[in-house]
Amino acid sequence: MNKCTKEDVAELVTLNGEEYLFYKSFPLDVALLRGTIADENGNISFAHEGIVNEGLAVASAAHNSGGIVIVQVEYLTKNDTIPPKDVRIPGILVDYVVEATDPMACWQTEGRYWEPAFSGQIRKPMKSIPKMPLSERKVIARRCAAEVRSGYVLNLGVGMSADVGNILAEEGVIDNVTMCCESGMIGGVPCALPSFGASYNPEAVIEHSSTFDIIDGGGLDMTCLGLGECDEDGNINVSRFGTRMIGPGGFIDITNATPKVVFCGTFMDKAKLSVADGRITVTQEGTRKKFLKHVGQITFAGKYVRPDQDIVYVTERCVMKMIDGKMTIVEIAPGIDLQKDILDHMDFVPAVSPDLKEMDPRMFCETWGGLADIF
Q1: Is 227 a member of any domain?
Q2: Closest C-alpha to 229, from 284, 280, 300
Q3: Which of 79, 99, 119 finishes a domain?
Q4: Sorting pLDDT into bands at 50, 70 and 90, what band is 375?
Q5: Residue span of the structural domain in which 81 resides
Q6: How is residue 335 annotated by DSSP?
């Protein structure tokens, strides 16, 4: 990835005739972790945490490497007051506990100091979850939601794709779908930034690694993920833009293991658009193209799509699919000119379906109300 890597961190190996990358382990000297409550023996509860993540795994790795484990908590309690099943990190792995004295030192997420509906203390009424304002972002989330079917186990990624949960709640079909997030949230309504990773009213909160056991084993029906860059082969880049390295997160595992994958994002970066009365208008064109001849890094490889996978690319201006190996526009938004607003801003020439459809104009109105019929 860069010149800082002084030695090979991975080795190509072959097992049962298949190639794998073997990543070598390395020792940890210090683990800095976060919990809610610690008892006098250092047992750690995550009572107010929205996400479990890998607290136990990281503590174990540092301790077993001969390193030290430091855990920040909000509260200290006497021994035998944390129920044993609520202990997420046993005290035998903990070297130091730091009780936070700054009242603003224990934010639950980047965007909320503490939302009890994230950590299971309350269950928030769906009508109290804030609705999204009408914008191109809401249009995209609605169109993605139209790909969901009743009974699906649905994974939502970071960014615009996380807004799909808000649409499902607003449209009153939340009880027909089980949404999850790779952070370990099962059920409820996943949050968008700045509280991504948490969910309102989750049914279960499990370890990050256990979530990927479910994902890699084919436990999802559909995923909705971001679209940073896309090219003529259907490749997607969300991990590296020039010298800016973001990393793929769970993107690669999720897209390879899920039967239906919906990528979503705005068609151009920084464009200004007007959404009203069943149509969308470009008022000022964007500054950066997202549909390129070749993406900067391949996070999802279009040519390796399995025959049984359904791949959809959703923007506010059009919807595309790979058909016969060609990126094909299958839907266009009302108010959008195919040539001026789409084709002129792509570095490749896509196919246009002979059965080109118009996106549902109701998605471009203040109230949609069409999702229950689709389900």
Answers
A1: yes
A2: 300
A3: 99
A4: confident
A5: 30-99
A6: T
- Indicate which residues carry an active-site annotation: 182
Is residue 18 domain-resident? no
| DSSP β-ladder status, 68-73 and 288-289 | unpaired
Contacts of 218 by beta carbon, 8 Å cutoff, 6+ apart: 257
Q: What is the CA radius of gyration of the chain?
A: 23
Q: What is the mean pLDDT of the chain?
A: 93
If DSSP codes are grouped into helix, strand and coil, which group holds residue 160?
helix
Query: Quick one: 245 and 319 in the same domain?
Result: yes
Q: Which residue type occupies 256?
A: N
What is the count of structural domains for the chain? Answer: 2
- 3-state secondary structure at position 157: coil
Whole-prediction pTM: 0.89
What is the rounded CA–CA span in Å between residue 301 and residue 311?
A: 11
Q: Is residue 335 part of a domain?
A: yes
Q: Count the neighbouring beta carbons within 10 Å of the beta carbon of residue 249.
A: 16
- 3 state DSSP class of 162: helix
The residue to which tokens 């040539």 are assigned: 339
- Does 38 fall in a domain? yes
Q: According to DSSP H, which parts of 188-286 are helical?
A: 208-216, 251-257
Residues 249 and 324 in one domain: yes
pLDDT in tens, 141-193: 999 999 999 999 999 998 889 899 999 999 999 899 999 999 999 998 888 88
CA–CA distance, 147 with 225 (Å, rounded to integer): 13
Say which CATH number the domain at 358 has: 3.40.1080.10
Cα separation, 315 vs 217, whole angstroms:
29
Token pair 């224990």: residue: 106
Give Cβ neighbours of residue 208 (< 8 Å, ≥ 6 apart): 51, 52, 53, 54, 182, 183, 184
Same domain flag for 162 and 38: no
Q: What is the pLDDT of residues 100-129, one digit of tens each?
A: 988 788 899 988 888 999 999 999 887 777
Closest CA relative to residue 300, chosen from 233, 350, 345, 346: 233
